[in-house]
Input
Amino acid sequence: MSALNQPSSESSALNLIRHWLDNLEVHNPKVARLFCIIIPAQCPFERNVTLFNHVIFHIPPLCHVNPLYEQLVGLRFRSLSYLADICGEDITPYCR
Output
């Protein structure tokens, strides 16, 4: 097998983390609340830079550059679902 066909250790580690996050189950309300607090509901980096009410340039959302973005969004969603469906909590404070 050539070196080009072998996955890099960085890629393998990233895939392991992705797999772990995708399979992480939420069974504790405190942990679910923590995930809902630390994982933002919206990408916080998107901005329009304006000068005298005119948009000079736009900074796109950088969350999609994060290689774990999809897994973190999924974990947040599972945490919200756990709090709402299993614990019966009102999740609107986490949706802002």
